[in-house]
Amino acid sequence: MERILNFLDKSTNGKCYKSFKYSLDDLEVPSLIYDDKPKIVLQPKAETDKRKQKYISVKEEAEKYKGNSIFKYFLDGSRKTYKVDDIAIGERIYPIIAGQIAVGCCFRPDAETFKCQKMERHFVLSLPIMLNTDGLPDVPFFKDLTVELNKSLLLRKMKVEFSNIFPYETELLKKNNSGDKEKYEDRGVALIQNKMMDLEQEIVHGLWKDNLLNDTSYLIKDGSLEYSKRDSFKGHDLSRLKQHYKYVVGVSKSFNPELFKSDNKSIARTIAEMPEYHRTEAYKYEFEGTTFCVWYLRIRENKFCDHQFAGVVKVEMILTAEEEIEEGLSTDVINQISANIVNERNPVCYGSDKRWANHIYPVYLTESYVKSQYIGDSFFLNLF
Questions:
Q1: What are the tens digits of pLDDT across the range 321-332?
Q2: DSSP conformation class of 321
Q3: pLDDT tops 60 at residue 122
Q4: What are the tens digits of pLDDT across the range 154-203?
Q5: What is the CA radius of gyration of the chain?
Q6: What is the per-residue pLDDT for 57?
Q7: Secondary structure letter of residue 47 according to DSSP
Q8: HSE, side-chain direction, 13 A CA sphere, residue 274
Q9: Are 242 and 265 spatial neighbours (Cβ–Cβ below 8 Å)?
Q10: pLDDT digits over 78-111, tens only?
């Protein structure tokens, strides 16, 4: 049965070399930064209580919500990428990138029930745009190529279907933000990452459309809410997209505290020395035309951890109303959200994940479920 690389040999103007296949995620390959964007100046304060406070305790507030969490939905997106071959077009050689994408949302209607609300699994390819020599626009060309690929007897027998073939640009490589020379692999991986983020936004849009999100039914998204304009869901106007996120909270396990400055001073030490069950003030900043409210929360002391930021999470919300943008998010709401996040910390996944101290347990369960949807690396690579 014809494998994918044989199909590309026959169906395009390129020549595949059947070179060594490997996972890009196991290498130190630069890729799209997801949780932290470039340096941002924080603008205090993004909450209605304007008193200057170094730390705010949410311990008493957390007691009120034990057994009655406002968080009902948990969202996580994941992807695995592989270099499966090199393809020659004319005198130049480009990588062929393949990927598995899994994005899932779990629902917890009560303390005893945890189930899947929505699951998206996609297999994708990223190929050099120069493969299109038919004179057709790029989108129809690669869409037709995807349709023909899925007719393969091997893919039909293995019950595998590719949802997209993304063309990456092949103009001269430039230096990235770190000063290192960009790689074609980076471009392919970034397109796959963008697809993952589009799927996350589709799920949030669906929950919003079905009126499932409200002030007693929030969603925690694993990671940042900072989507750039190029990533906005299917070209939706950014102002419309923001409305979907009114009851969505982004919780980041890993972050770079040096990226954020207040009054032109780093707040890294403030975060590092924060007591358990306390949060920082909420700060406001703008990114890509969207106003964010961000604060840091210590959900666990770092007595048994390996670094000073273990046990701290970064919490983000998008400010959707003009009043919130001007006056800040309600301090009561920030305390309520923080208290509920504290209550979600146990039980821990100690020993299963090196980020255990920063994990919100239902997010860990969601992440584990999402990653269980992957097919094995050997099986996947054998399709090529």
A1: 889 988 999 999
A2: S
A3: yes
A4: 999 999 999 999 999 988 777 666 566 788 999 999 999 999 999 999 99
A5: 22
A6: 96
A7: B
A8: 31
A9: no
A10: 999 999 999 999 889 999 999 999 999 999 999 8
Question: CA–CA separation, 8 vs 67, rounded Å?
Answer: 55
Cα angle 300-302-306, degrees, rounded to a multiple of 5 = 135
The single residue listed with the structure tokens 């997801």 is: 34
DSSP states along 188-238: HHHHHHHHHHHHHHHHHHHHHHTT--BTTBEEEEES-----GGGSGGG--H
For 47-56, b/e burial (b = at least 16 CB within 10 A) is bbeeeeeebb
115, 272, 339, 352 from 70: Cα distances, Å:
17, 28, 10, 27
Q: What's the whole-number mean pLDDT along residues 335-358?
A: 80
At 272, is the secondary structure helix, strand, or coil?
helix
With contact defined as beta carbons under 8 Å apart, do 108 and 149 qualify? no
Phi, psi of 174 (to 5 degrees): -120, 180
CA separation for the pair 199, 105 (Å, rounded): 11
Closest CA to 72 of 225, 207, 242, 251: 207
